[in-house]
Amino acid sequence: MSGSAGxxxxxxxxxxxxxxxxxxxxxxxxxARVLLIDRPGSPNASSVAAGMLAPAFESVLEEATxxxxxxxxxxxxxxxxxxxxxxxxxxxxxxxxxxxxPRKMAERLRTLGFKARLKDGKAFTSDDxxxxxxxxxxxxxxxxxxxxxxxxxxxxxRSGDGWELACADGEPSRAARVVVATGVHKTxxxxxxxxxxxxxxxxxxxxxxxxxxxxPPCVLRGEGVYVVPDGTGVLVGATMxxxxxxxxxxxxxxxxxxxxxxxxxxxxxxxxxxxxxxGVRGATPDGLPLxxxxxxxxxxALAPRRNGWLLAAMIARITTASLSGRKPDEDALRxxxxxx
Length: 340
Ligand SMILES: Cc1cc2nc3c(=O)[nH]c(=O)nc-3n(C[C@H](O)[C@H](O)[C@H](O)COP(=O)(O)OP(=O)(O)OC[C@H]3O[C@@H](n4cnc5c(N)ncnc54)[C@H](O)[C@@H]3O)c2cc1C
Fold this sequence. Notes:
about 350 residues, alpha+beta, FAD/NAD(P)-binding domain, D-Amino Acid Oxidase, Chain A, domain 2, 2 domains, nine-stranded mixed sheet, eight-stranded mixed sheet, 11 helices, 19 strands, about 30% helix, binds flavin-adenine dinucleotide
């Protein structure tokens, strides 16, 4: 296929956060010519995230059913293949509950099907992994077969057998099919089905801080707060602020987050934030993402709530299968954009 702007592709993926970049890498691995487009601007939710791939603690803390816990574990298990293909570095140093009643926590983890044992007075699981978002995003965007373009897509319109993407720089792109992975951004014009899908995405702002202190040996979890090793320091996160779309950081909120984190990791007691950031997560009423076809030739990869990194490999797999016209499996039906 060739296009007047020289940018024609089998698939254009709009949005290069965890979902779009992972989907682009997966599609390219299947042999598609992929154009990944992201607008210049402020950091996306994926780069603000802590990078935990945490089916175990996310399941317990969100009171997941065993079925949901198995889904999250299955999503994590798709990462090694994607990581090996793209150079994403997975860190498998586990996570420990540093809150009250570690024995009970270990039991709850085991009940949901995760490995757990007491270690240094904490409930430790090797089932939670992590990655470094900046490294992972760079590796996915750079995946073999993915062409990357910096442009804001302003609108999508059918054109012949495919789509024309109108871009803010005046140079349109064309592709046979389009995946919309624009996070919580809803400014792109397009067909009614797209508007309907984007309208289902609700917002949850999160604030997170980096602090320069000796990091713990693994992720530490507590009620509503976590500490994630980050090179020479730690990330302390994160707030859950439904309905908020601004990226403002509230110093008092960050100070309180660090105070609560110091109960998990005492070196934080006298520390101050080196920097703090905010990101906005997209979510749906049942807490699962929207992945799959929304109308002929148009696909969504959206709204993974607080587990965008954890779910990215699975969303990429489901979206790619949907693009290939494969019959949806059980996971794909759970993520179907038409389920609401
Ligand atoms: C503080 C915080 C901590 C978190 N920690 C974790 C964690 O530890 N583990 C985990 O699994 N998840 C975590 N999350 C959740 C995770 O970050 C999100 O679920 C995930 O990043 C969402 O990815 P996304 O690709 O949907 O959106 P985004 O990362 O927001 O990417 C969307 C992209 O689309 C682009 N875009 C939008 N509109 C257009 C347009 N019109 N044209 C071109 N490009 C466009 C944007 O520029 C952006 O790059 C955290 C979130 C926050 C806020």
